[in-house]
């Protein structure tokens, strides 16, 4: 250890040199350290240092990120999860224990740049954390450190990895829906690239416009991903948003699953997403939604065949008959329960009343609460219950209207609907409109940046260059000639032949 310790502390130079290390020199030094750590036996790292003490007490995770990570894993033990029994792992690495505290210190302070060079070890630590949470029947204890690690490596969380799926699965199992939002609320724009497609990207230590240029299939920062992983992540994410009643975001996630490319038969994951998508569409829009245009036609037929009771329920909702809607709900009650969608179906039943009231706004400017009760309430004679229900809708922002006392009859109220979205209790102030505009502007700017990055990668990809050579025409052949290298300036410039080649 006396000989090894100076080598472990050699990078990064401390104190930092007056002149910052060049990218080339940084790469050379850190790769040498990585090689040394790979050649060092775990037993050497867990030995005490001269004078007593643990190596973890000497290393600073913010500075000595790589040796700290390797030493922490050496203490935890097991090169692969299957080589270490659950009991042994829990004994060595229990939540709240000494090594658990060291892990928490590491995920809060590690250097994200250095971690890019040891993706396999970094991911292995996250998998250990998740396994401990599950083995201890406390999945919630693993959520904060994994979430912190994901967002410190990639604050945008824009490149989909196996860690995303690991994280949302834990949140779903722990029913920690709110805890999932810091990751789920970030849109996914990229998938890890294969090494041959990333050869033109900067080295890991250099500045990267997006995380997709350092999270590659060879970086180790993500396991090899399959099609199933991608759609499972969005299904789980949609379920989490359902638990939080964030219907719009849930609808988006479920739709991503539905329209995912597929063969002639849809997967059961997509069928499950479709069932929930139909119900969420009713909760959000109050009417059956048309099948997304980009849905595979074979998949669409499969959805309708397997999920026919859901489509029937949606049609009953659309017809506006509460008796028929309730009858359809009762007729397929066992199906809702078997699909674990009974809770959603009951919310659809409750939403029917709300949308019935909203429909009245299209016909009336104002009407007595007694009349509202007659047309929408399951208890038409209970005026007090209807008034209480209307108040709850107004307070929660689901109904843009006001309740006013009647000038003609004492003790009765009038429901007055807002004429436009700029009137009534839901009217926004100028500052609120400005803040909303700022949020939308930032979102569009982010989307544009990721699109440009994708276009650039497409221009530099082997598939595009081969296509460009095949379709190259001289400049004097007219305006319809192919002009490779202009995707970023003149739209996508992609046709079906190119997509077929890819």
Structure, explained:
By secondary structure, the protein is mostly helical. About 55% of the residues lie in helices and about 5% in strands. Strands 1-3-2 form a 3-stranded antiparallel beta sheet. Helix 17 runs antiparallel to helix 18 (about 320-330). The longest helix has about 30 residues, at about 430-460. The radius of gyration is 29 Å and the shape is elongated.
Keywords:
3 strands, mainly alpha
The largest beta-sheet arranges its strands as 1-3-2
**Biggest sheet: strands, sense, closure?**
3 strands, antiparallel
In the predicted model, the low-confidence regions spanning at least 5 consecutive residues are: 481-502
The coarse silhouette is elongated
Determine the N-to-C terminus distance: 52 Å
Please report the number of helical segments.
25
Bin the strand percentage.
Answer: under 5%
Structural category: mainly alpha
Q: Radius of gyration, rounded?
A: 29 Å
Helix/strand layout:
Blueprint: H1 4-8, H2 23-39, H3 42-45, H4 55-58, H5 65-76, H6 86-92, H7 98-109, H8 112-115, H9 119-135, H10 143-153, H11 162-174, H12 177-184, H13 227-243, H14 247-258, H15 268-285, H16 297-306, H17 308-319, H18 322-331, H19 333-338, H20 342-360, E1 366-368, H21 369-376, H22 383-395, E2 401-405, E3 413-417, H23 430-460, H24 462-471, H25 496-501
Antiparallel strand pairs: 1-3, 2-3
Helix pairs in contact: 5-7, 6-9, 7-10, 9-10, 9-11, 10-11, 10-12, 11-12, 11-13, 12-13, 13-14, 13-15, 14-15, 15-16, 15-17, 15-20, 17-18, 18-20
Briefly summarize what is shown.
With 502 residues, the protein is mainly alpha-helical.
């Amino acid at each position: 250890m006396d000989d090894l310790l100076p080598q472990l502390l050699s990078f990064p130079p401390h104190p930092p040199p007056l002149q910052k290390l060049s990218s080339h020199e940084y790469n050379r030094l850190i790769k040498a350290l990585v090689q040394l750590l790979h050649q060092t036996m775990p037993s050497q790292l867990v030995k005490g240092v001269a004078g007593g003490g643990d190596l973890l007490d000497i290393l600073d995770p913010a500075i000595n990120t790589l040796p700290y990570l390797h030493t922490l894993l050496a203490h935890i033990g097991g090169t692969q999860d299957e080589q270490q029994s659950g009991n042994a792992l829990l004994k060595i690495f229990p939540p709240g224990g000494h090594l658990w505290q060291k892990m928490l210190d590491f995920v809060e302070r590690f250097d994200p740049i250095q971690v890019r060079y040891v993706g396999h070890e970094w991911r292995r630590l996250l998998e250990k954390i998740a396994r401990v949470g599950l083995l201890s029947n406390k999945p919630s204890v693993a959520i904060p450190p994994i979430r912190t690690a994901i967002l410190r490596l990639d604050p945008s969380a824009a490149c989909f990895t196996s860690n995303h799926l690991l994280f949302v699965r834990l949140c779903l199992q722990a029913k920690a829906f709110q805890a999932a939002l810091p990751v789920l609320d970030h849109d996914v724009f990229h998938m890890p690239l294969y090494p041959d497609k990333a050869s033109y990207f900067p080295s890991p230590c250099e500045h990267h416009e997006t995380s997709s240029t350092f999270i590659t299939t060879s970086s180790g920062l993500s396991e090899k991903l399959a099609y199933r992983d991608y759609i499972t992540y969005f299904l789980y994410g949609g379920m989490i948003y359902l638990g939080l009643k964030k219907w719009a975001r849930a609808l988006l996630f479920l739709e991503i699953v539905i329209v995912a490319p597929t063969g002639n038969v849809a997967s059961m994951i997509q069928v499950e997403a479709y069932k929930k998508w139909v119900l969420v569409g009713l909760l959000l829009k109050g009417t059956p939604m048309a099948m997304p245009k980009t849905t595979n036609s074979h998949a669409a037929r499969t959805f309708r065949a397997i999920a026919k009771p859901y489509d029937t329920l949606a049609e009953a909702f659309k017809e506006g008959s509460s008796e028929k809607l309730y009858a359809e709900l009762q007729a397929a009650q066992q199906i809702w329960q078997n699909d674990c969608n009974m809770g959603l179906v009951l919310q659809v039943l409750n939403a029917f009343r709300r949308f019935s009231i909203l429909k009245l706004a299209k016909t009336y400017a104002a009407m007595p609460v007694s009349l509202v009760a007659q047309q929408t309430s399951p208890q038409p004679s209970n005026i007090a219950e209807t008034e209480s229900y209307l108040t709850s809708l107004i307070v929660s922002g689901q109904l843009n209207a006001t309740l006013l006392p009647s000038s003609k009859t004492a003790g009765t109220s009038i429901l007055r609907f807002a004429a436009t979205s700029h009137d009534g209790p839901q009217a926004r102030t100028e500052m609120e409109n400005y803040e909303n505009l700022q949020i939308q502007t930032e979102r569009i700017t982010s989307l544009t940046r990721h699109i440009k990055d994708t276009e650039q990668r497409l221009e530099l990809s082997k598939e595009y260059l081969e296509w460009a050579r095949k379709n190259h025409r001289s400049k004097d052949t007219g305006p319809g000639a192919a002009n490779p290298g202009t995707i970023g300036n003149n739209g996508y410039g992609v046709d079906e032949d190119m997509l077929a080649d890819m």
